[in-house]
Amino acid sequence: MGKFIIEGGYSLSGEVKVQGSKNAVLPLLAATVLNKGKTYFYNCPKILDVYNMLNILAGIGCMIEWEDDVLIIDSSVITTHIIPEKYVQMMRSSIILLGSVLSRLKNVKICFPGGCSIGTRPIDLHLKALKQMNVAIKDRHGFIECHTNKIIGNHVSLDYPSVGATENIMLTAVLSEGTTVINNAAKEPEILELQEFLNKMGAKVHGAGTDTISIQGVSELQSVEYRIMPDRIVAGSYMCAVASAGGEVLLKDVCKSHMNATISKMQEMGCVMKEYDKNILIQAPKKLQSIDLLRTQPYPGFPTDMQAQIMNCFVIADGTSIIAETIFESRYKHVAELVKMGADIITDGRIAVIKGVSRLNGAEVFAEDLRGGAALVLAGLGAEGETVVNHAHHILRGYENLDQDLGLLGAKIKYTSD
């Protein structure tokens, strides 16, 4: 499962390039099934979730090739509508293959997906929408089976602006008959990225970034070259690393407009942020300031994927901070591990009250999910002594070369697969 070993107490300085976006690339990988040709990806992150998705694509007949840092996917031939169960159980995001394979083959069979255990995350919104698009669905023995003779566009209103449901509807509707309109759609930057990718293949999608998205069905799509946008969560994680350990770092290849909520909270804690085109310089204060209340919300609010990392800053801030986690009900699994390191945190349901301490102490801790695991690594950077973060495979799902990036900035960190 691997582990990260961190010797704390070293401030960070220098510059680091932010990797391509995990949350953006996974639906794009699923979308390659639609074009019956070749897709060339640039800036694709080499992370565990990407490799799992590529294994799924290979399992249904796609040809996968890396040429240096260019990922090439040939989806000319799809040999089965059954999604390989082994890899689906490793990552929640695999559910987005439901829409793309159904759109291509009019049939799909997929097991209920796995991934981080941060909440129930039901897929009923996905299935309810597909039923409105002339899709018959059977749910039995842990598998979802979908079939249609043709996908017919419709007006779909989501009860909640779910990112995954919005993506699945978009992927299903691209090759449909008629027009599909999604009301109360998710507005995340990753939705806009999917729209741009689909349109570059010849789709007709409009409205991403607003709460209403329109997809006019087309008969076929074409091969495409595409560069993946930078990862706003990784960029935010590195900001929290600097805030926790101290120092000054230039983050390169950052989309500032995607990160307004995170940048605002970093400034509220006392960090100095300077923007230079696609780069952001962050300078940590001598002492972080607490934040009265931080509430996770759908975009453009503060992202739930940054909650654990910023909590790591609150534990050493001057004063008391409160977090209200409104998205997932089980996203405080890192709290017990931070407490092992000396943090003063009390949770009550979805509320966490964090009283700042002067410094954390190194300890042996265990990652239980992707973002919580990353937060523990960041906590180790500023802690006194050695921190060992076990179950590092969770972290590898979303961070490429985390130890190398932090090491270049002056951190004493190493990864071992033992």
UniProtKB/TrEMBL annotation:
Active site location: C116
Chain positions found as 2-(S-cysteinyl)pyruvic acid O-phosphothioketal: C116
Listed GO MF terms: UDP-N-acetylglucosamine 1-carboxyvinyltransferase activity
Documented EC number(s): 2.5.1.7
Cleaved signal peptide residues: none
Domain of life, source organism: Bacteria
Keyword Cell wall biogenesis/degradation in record: yes
Ranges of residues in domain Enolpyruvate transferase: 7-405
Xref: Gene3D superfamilies: Enolpyruvate transferase domain
CC annotations in GO: cytoplasm
InterPro entries: Enolpyruvate_Tfrase_dom, Enolpyruvate_Tfrase_sf, MurA_subfamily, RNA3'P_cycl/enolpyr_Trfase_a/b, UDP_GlcNAc_COvinyl_MurA
Pathway: Cell wall biogenesis; peptidoglycan biosynthesis
GO biological process, one term: cell wall organization
Main subcellular localisation: cytoplasm
Localization (cell): Cytoplasm
Catalysis: reaction(s): phosphoenolpyruvate + UDP-N-acetyl-alpha-D-glucosamine = UDP-N-acetyl-3-O-(1-carboxyvinyl)-alpha-D-glucosamine + phosphate
Binding, UDP-N-acetyl-alpha-D-glucosamine: R92, R121, P122, I123, D124, L125, D305, I327
Enzyme class: transferase
Function: Cell wall formation. Adds enolpyruvyl to UDP-N-acetylglucosamine.
Identification of the protein by name: UDP-N-acetylglucosamine 1-carboxyvinyltransferase
Organism: Vallitalea pronyensis
Encoding gene per record: murA
